[in-house]
Give the backbone structure.
Amino acid sequence: MLESVIQTKTIKTLELAGWYVIKLIQTNKNGIMDLVALKNGRAVFIEVKTDTGKQSELQKYRQKEITEQGFKVLIITNSKQIESL
């Protein structure tokens, strides 16, 4: 499945569950996650990959930075993975 299809399904699933979802297209930080989901004072950063996709070293570094700030980061390959939020 294409990454764009997974991303669209993920956004729809999250929004149906009451999350406010922002697609991060261009930021001042290269390697930042694809999406940020907000709900009830929580922020979850989401990187969308295909089954064969891999995070770059820069993406791994950004994930470490974000988790060190106390935020959750999810790497998902299908929209069903976000049902646990």
